[in-house]
Structure of Pyrroline-5-carboxylate reductase:
Amino acid sequence: MTQTVAVLGTGKIGEALLSGMIRAGWHPANLLVTARRPERAEELRTRYGVDAVTNAEAAKRADTLILAVKPQDMGALLDELAPHLTDDRLVISAAAGIPSTFLEARLAAGTPVVRVMPNTPVLVDEGMSVISAGSHATPDHLAHAEEIFGGVGKTLRVPESQQDAATALSGSGPAYFYYLVEAMTDAGILLGLPRAQAYDLIVQSAIGAAVMLRDSGEHPVKLREAVMSPAGTTISAIRELENHGVRAALIAALEAARDRSRELASGTN
Ligand SMILES: NC(=O)C1=CN([C@@H]2O[C@H](COP(=O)(O)OP(=O)(O)OC[C@H]3O[C@@H](n4cnc5c(N)ncnc54)[C@H](O)[C@@H]3O)[C@@H](O)[C@H]2O)C=CC1
Ligand SMILES: O=C(O)[C@@H]1CCC=N1
């Protein structure tokens, strides 16, 4: 039987996922979206050929609902959905921090809930989506979530207790790399290169390094050692990174992201 999937709250991550599902072969007729503003609903209809409906209608028509609103909007959305949802629907939440128990407490008893933390590279089919089961989710429900998110990148199952950490690593992860590229491009300008050239040099270095990390099977230390010639340029740079505590700063940064994910658990702050 063909499944209907609805994306509720089609903002940045919801739209990225929707576009990826269509690229992965989902027929627009089997996809529904919801949006707060009518102009946004119209934009999504035109861009993807999907039906834009109310949250209540999505709850009635879809077999699987992907909730992609902000953590702070999740309580209100669940209140809107609950009267229309039966416990044979799969509810997938992509919201940072919100535990599956938050959803289970507001939906019909026994509703299967799966928590997923994707990231924006789903836009280019290189996403990383971390998946955990709520209390009533079966292996089939997890497999269905993997089918959806696996079409736009890699998936990994973790116990829900590790979701806040995963959010800090891969959910937020792309932003750290963009930040590094920005800073290194500034450095290129300081060294006298035009911005566009500096940017190209850094982005291509990032792509090359990422592919080697993924495909070489080598530990990152080994890969770095192969770049660092004795008494050369690279070790001079690495010494500065160590002097400025960049490793410690990254550890502290990811810890802060994990802590913020925990704070978002109540859905109010
Ligand atoms: N942006 C990212 O890289 C990632 C975001 N997430 C999670 O995804 C969720 C959404 O994040 P973004 O896409 O960045 O935010 P966003 O603000 O771009 O998207 C949220 C959308 O939900 C809509 N919305 C809110 N309440 C609604 C309602 N009751 N009915 C219909 N639409 C409603 C908003 O109008 C907005 O378009 C958050 O919970 C976030 O933690 C997860 C992984 C990565
Ligand atoms: O910054 C955030 O809260 C969301 C969750 C992971 C990525 N973006």
About this structure: The longest strand covers residues 127-133. The CA atoms of residues 194 and 258 lie 37 Å apart. The pocket of NAI (ligand 1) is lined by residues 8-9, 11-14, 34-36, 55, 68-71, 73, 76-77, 94-96, 117-120, 171 (CB under 6 Å).
